[in-house]
Amino acid sequence: MQKTDIYSVICDEGHEYGIMKPYQISQQRWKFILLIFAAVIAVASLVYTNYLVRNLAHAERSKAEVWAMSTKNIMTMPDVDDEFITFIYAVRDSLNLPAIITDDKEDIIFWRNLDSTKTNIKPGQNDSVTKHLNYDPAYFQKQLAFMKKSHPPITLELENGQKWHVYYKDSWFLQQLRVFPYVQLSLIALFLIIAYTVFNSIRKSEQNLVWVGLTKEAAHQLGTPISSLMGWLELIRIKFDAEEDDTLTEMENDIKRLEIVADRFSKIGSTPVLTNHNLYEVIKNYMDYFRIRTSNKITFELKGDKHLEAKLNIPLFDWIIENLLKNGVNAIGTEGKITVNISENIAKEEIFIDISDTGKGIPRSNFESVFQPGFTTRKRGWGLGLSLTKRMVRYHQGQIFVKESELGKGTTFRIILKSNLKYEATQI
Asked: Is the pTM of this model over 0.70?
């Protein structure tokens, strides 16, 4: 299980988007800086790589032109000095671009650096050349079509008025260079994601340690005045002989509530212990306490199955119900009703707890956003109540979501817990 952090300690409810909190603004600024940094790297990498590609492509075209001219000279020149012929061959063979020469009819005359196991010469034309090669004209036509799309041809004019067209494609190195910036950007993006995740994790861990320490110290400091209040309350009862006084009883309930709150703070950062409890009784006990501390214009109703059981941590589960009831009260405003209905899905052995209010409702687009930290309509508050509630429901191996809502009519939140009651299938 995850440990509770500072944002799980403070609760505030709201149905609609509210103001952005300072820690969220800081987080957004950090993300924006990382995004700008990544964008600068990406643009610089693409611009520089594009510059290299253009220059290399220009150099390769020059090589293709030299190769074309040397090939033309070899195939058309008369007998000349053997040393000059050797020089021309050396120049041609030093240029290793994949290339094809065609005539005016687009018939392939010569090729260079293509698949050495294939030939475009028909068997029988030159058996000494083709006997160990695979005659595959379709391969050469496919390569020619690709070269035509890659670059405009180099045209050579012969003395007899014919024209040759030289087609070529990028070298393997240039092809890799074109892909390189995207590989580089992918690696940079991966690095930024890892770096952001690591730094964010470290920052959150440090925050958690600080705030867990503060909450435990706050719980320790609350212990002394709470104990004193209990003592003073007993003295008042004895002095005024008011053992059954309702006002003092409610004061005692509030002091006990303070003890529960202090206990919550003292357990932050530790794994909660879950034990079996009757859901109806647990919810009823808190609703009875909450009802008399709320406006009498807001009515409360608890209904449903009274016998369902689930594993709960009472202080945390009370906190869940408290946040949802306060959320409903804030949504209602002045006058309305809050209903809690407990039901069961026997087939899945799940318990449904539906908390409905007659408040202002939630737009459907915000059904998920209401559980995000900082989401609130209240001007004074942190907007962390529902985020905290979702975390505590997960501690109980459950789920919470907005079941339904309609603007101006109300909202229903649903909690799903695993039932502790097991059923055996009956045979007919």
From this structure: no
